[in-house]
Amino acid sequence: SSGSAQAPAGGASGSRGLEEFNMDDYDEGGEDGGMQFFSVLNADGELAREPDPYMTAGNPDSDSDSDSAFEIGAEDKVFVAVSCEEDACNLELYIFDEDQASMYVHHDVMLGAYPLCVEWLNNAAGIGEGSFAAIGLIDHTIQIWDLDVLEVMEPVQMLGPKKKAKAKKKRGAPSSGGAKAHEGPVLCLHGSMFNRSVLASGSADETVKVWDVSSNSCVHTYNHHSSKVQCVRWHPSEQAVLLSAAFDRRLALLDVRQPGQAAMAPLPAEAECSIWSRHRPFECLSSVDNGGLACYDVRKVANKATEKEMVVWSMQAHDVACTSVQDCPVADCLVTCGLDGIAKVWSSPGTTPKLIMEKNLNAGPLFACQSYVEAPGLFCFGGKCPVMWDLTSEQLLVDVFKFEDTPSA
Length: 409
What we know:
By secondary structure, the chain is mainly β. Among the domains are: 37-58 and 72-163, no CATH class; 317-409. It is 5% helix and 40% strand. The protein contains 4 helices and 27 strands. The protein starts with 41 loop residues before the first strand and ends in an 8-residue tail after the last helix. Residues 1-65 and 169-178 have low confidence and may be disordered.
């Protein structure tokens, strides 16, 4: 359930500030919480199970023959993407047919501005039950669309309506309250897995914002970066802790209740993608625009250790920008992609990863990759078109990672 959003991501019991984070005693065997979906492509195994009269059988006012083509089955694999062709920008909901190894657009939504990121939301208080997509746009706004409704004309919610730009705020001075719009394009989004009404955003205006979707308001603005914010990620189990990375070549660890106390780690180049490790929650991974990839120990970052002490390992993952990194639900399996159009699979047992396989997906430059939670070997990539790569179809990868099929619920 969503719960109250009066104190976003920070009011529940069990959360700690960075000074009390005590990451040295972190329970390595704790729940991983499940990484939510991010960036240009998002996958969602639960979407198919949302009861909806527009998409499922049983609507007495519908024609069964025509509606059957729109039904989403319990075993269908669903993902959303955004695309732009000439002057048309669309949000597209895809169905992937695993048996036929093919995909098709179930339905799409025309967008009025260029989309830069999308985040799947469900059952957000103030919006309703179902499946929704939050989209960060170049016009500085965040639109939330109902994915369960066909031929929808308007978003159900818009965060930060575009207003006349104001004087730039001094960095380091937080603000709260009110529906404050970003003053630049919205580059990244991530929804809290603890409270579905809480959404974090990062922007070209150099700020990070936390939104209460239920009240259509920005409750906090953070100014700890000095350039475009490329990544925001909530911690999978510490609900007040937010990770961000920016073009200022810094990775930030922030307790959202203590905005003036962000802990920083230097990056070797401009940030491309940053995520929390699914299997080692005291570590995060960050890729940069020179193709580098590094793992950071957030215990060391929080304690303001030296750069050398913060970095668990680092490597050159791609010859050009490494745009996305994702750790697989299967332990020690890491996947990256880049502007070279190559997807790479690495063995990462806690030390510097070893390359196992690489593949040209023939989709041009790749901007995002995401695993599918109910099929650990299935990855979706975003380039000039969406591409699915089933790692379990590669015998070498099966031999190395011992993939096991996860039955659909």
